[in-house]
Amino acid sequence: MLGSVEGPHDVKRLDVEELPRLAGEIRDLLVDVCARLGGHLGPNLGVVELTIAIHRVFDSPRDPVVWDTGHQAYVHKLLTGRAPGFEALKQEGGLSGYPSQAESEHDLVENSHASTALSYADGLAKAFKLRGERDRTVVAVIGDGALTGGMAWEALNNIAAAKDLPVVIVVNDNGRSYSPTIGGLASHLSNLRVTRRYEDLLEYVKDKIGNVPLLYDALHGFKKGVKDVLAPQAMFEDLGLKYVGPIDGHDEQAMEAALRKARHFRGPVIVHALTQKGRGYTPAEEHDEDQFHSPGAFDRATGAEKPKGRIWTNVFSEELVRLGKEREDLVAITAAMLHPTGLAAFADAYPDRIYDVGIAEQHALTSAAGLALGGMHPVVAVYATFLNRAFDQLLMDVALHRLPVTVVLDRAGVTGDDGASHNGMWDLSILQVVPGLRIAVPRDGERLAELLGEAVTVSDGPTVLRFPKGPVAESIEAVGKLGEMDVLRAADPDVLLVGVGPMAQVCMDAAVLLDAQGISATVVDPRWVKPLDEALVLAAGAHKLVAVVEDNGRVGGVGDAVARLLRDADVDVPVRTYGIPQRFLDHAKRAAILGHIGLTAQDLAREITEAVAKRSNPIESSSARA
After folding, report:
1. Selected catalytic residue, list 56, 193, 389, 411
2. Do residues 109 and 120 lie in contact, with contact meaning Cβ atoms separated by under 8 Å?
3. Chain mean pLDDT for the chain
4. pLDDT category, 189, cuts 50, 70, 90?
């Protein structure tokens, strides 16, 4: 049946009796593909019926559906004609793991950072109103933790103030303990709440008894009190939003009925759906940690994940637990990613010193500032891509006060499979402007433990430690020191290779290839890239060319900082910077992306050889270009 679905029009034509079969086929495909490739399985198993109902009630793309977060949009992809390509989910050249404008007209917003869909919906609905397109409804699906983000509540406040904006907000609630309210009275009240005649009656009563406010308040309070006994709607009602629910999100017909009521209201309405994350796949339903939120490849029969080996996050996790034993002032903060960022072990060891603030990176940083003001040393662990959201708080709330807060950035640099929004390619650029901030970048697991230990001893300002996704790099021992930098390879003065963190190994491999071309290369690892060690000035002056290699955007990164350092010191040795080009990268494996953008040993050796040749033969090079 799924093979016959080429778009929402095909979903609409199905008989009600056929929908359970469609849902079953969708779940089978989700499990099959994610077992082989990994992916956000749990959230999507939970929104199967909900998504079917949305596409039977609304007319996508004319009624745009905005997903928050976008990782729960797999079912939406399948119902909008992309089932034939789903076998290549998150693979190079295949479907993205998030909504993608390049894939489909049904994906209006490439939404993968949480808590943003309601703001998109607010703006879209206002635009349709100004353009006179009053027959269009905007649907925002929010859930799987996204309502813990403050931006969502800012948007709700604005949406509620615009009473005539047709915005249907589907709250996919897969984490609460209350049960759906059922029965005739609850159904009747839900119908009443989204009937314009009821609103007109309230306004009439208010006008007639406006000079008796206590009577109106009593009437309104009675209505609200009765409904609150039956449904957990108070917080939405207090904002002035109409509310339908809670609805069993796995009852497709109930979801359809609720969505149709909401659509006909022609104003902002909350439809509250209760769903079960991992629904329909027993290993996911019984997985206590996160109901298979985003597993790697696994055995379909048992649900057992295939071994990943030792990754960078493991090293950080173990070292933080060890430091926590030595330092009672160490506390840890996570933004709804306790396990992915490696803080679960710290939470087990020191349950009173861990804080999960939800998807609220801004609050995380300013709360950390408060903890530091109170005498603690917070360690805030987030994915590198999500630090962008808390830059102001790091700058003005932490750094301005010179507070000892350590920010640990997991998944820094090229991450690959999750696409453009998840590559941690911005932090080394945006953090360069923060006064008093120190940034450490380890090249291997030993250096990660070493630099984390150094970071948490800093007491006069914030520190940042960043490391990539995936298996931890093989250790590279230093052969000497240059100031506080590690010299990894000493050579005659031709080229100085500055390898930032895990790119040190790439530089070491490139140096061997350069040897074959008769070019000697010294390789150093700066360890701390902000501030840069002044010893770098003397080292650069002793070489003919400096090349900085980093797993970050080229603009404003470490390479630019090195060039500025040498320029300020009147050292005129040319500096070449190698990093991630300033564009949004398509999803693929990390190794494949590094190859595409020229961050391999072979690419570096070739480019550096050409650069050295041009400087050695300037006249010949000029003639060749002419």
Report:
1. 389
2. yes
3. 87
4. very low
Q: What is the mean pLDDT of residues 426-433?
A: 95
The answer, yes or no, to whether residue 137 has pLDDT greater than 70, is yes
CA 374 to CA 305: how far, in whole Å?
42
What is the DSSP secondary structure assignment for residue 475, as one 8-state letter?
A: P
| Catalytic residue check, 277 | yes
Q: Which residues contact 439 (CB under 8 A, 6 or more apart)?
A: 428, 431, 463, 464, 465, 466, 528, 529, 530
HEC letters along 238-301: HHCCEEEEEEECCCHHHHHHHHHHHHHHCCCEEEEEECCCCCCCHHHHCCCCCCCCCCCCECCC
Reduced to 3 states, what is the DSSP secondary structure of residue 452? helix
Instruction: Give the CB-side neighbour count of residue 409, counting CA atoms within 13 A.
Output: 31
Instruction: Confirm if 43 and 144 have CB atoms less than 8 A apart.
Output: yes
Are 52 and 251 within 8 A, CB to CB?
Answer: no
Residue count of the chain, please give it: 626
Residue 489 has, within 13 A of its CA and on its CB side, a CA count of: 25
Q: In sequence order, which ranges of 376-502 are alpha helices (DSSP H)? A: 384-387, 391-392, 427-430, 445-455
pTM of the model: 0.84
Side chain identity, residue 580: I
Q: Dig out the tokens for 599 from the structure.
A: 């961050």
DSSP string, 497-528: EEE-TTHHHHHHHHHHHHHHTT--EEEEE-SE
pLDDT at 221 over 50: yes
Q: With 50 as the cut, is the pLDDT of residue 185 above it? A: no
Using DSSP, state whether 107 is helix, strand or coil. Answer: coil
Model pLDDT, residue 233:
61
d(Cα 191, Cα 199) in Å, to the nearest integer?
12
Give the whole-angstrom CA distance, residue 552 versus residue 439: 13
pLDDT of 438 strictly over 60:
yes
**Counts of helices then strands in the chain (DSSP H, E):** 26, 18
Where are any strands of DSSP class E within 467-613?
480-482, 485-489, 495-499, 521-525, 528-530, 545-553, 575-580
Tokens found for residue 6: 């080429």
Per residue in 244-297, pLDDT tens? Answer: 888 899 999 999 999 999 999 989 999 989 888 889 888 888 887 778 888 888
In angstroms, the CA 387 to CA 429 distance is 12
Instruction: Say if CB 121 and CB 138 are below 8 A apart.
Output: yes
Is residue 220 pLDDT above 60, yes or no? no
Q: Report the distance separating Cα 152 and Cα 499, nearest Å.
A: 40
Integer Cα distance of 230 and 207 in angstroms: 29
**Among 73, 62, 200, which residue's Cα sits nearest to residue 136?**
62
Tell me which of 193, 361, 489, 554 is the catalytic residue: 361
Q: Is 325 one of the annotated active-site residues of the chain? A: no
CA distance 444 to 525: 11
Q: Is the pLDDT of residue 522 over 90?
A: yes
Q: Active-site residue 389, yes or no?
A: yes
**Bridge partner residues of 248 (DSSP):** 274
Q: Of the listed 193, 227, 277, 469, which one is catalytic?
A: 277
**Model confidence pLDDT, tens digit, residues 325-371:** 999 999 999 998 899 999 999 999 999 999 998 888 999 999 999 99
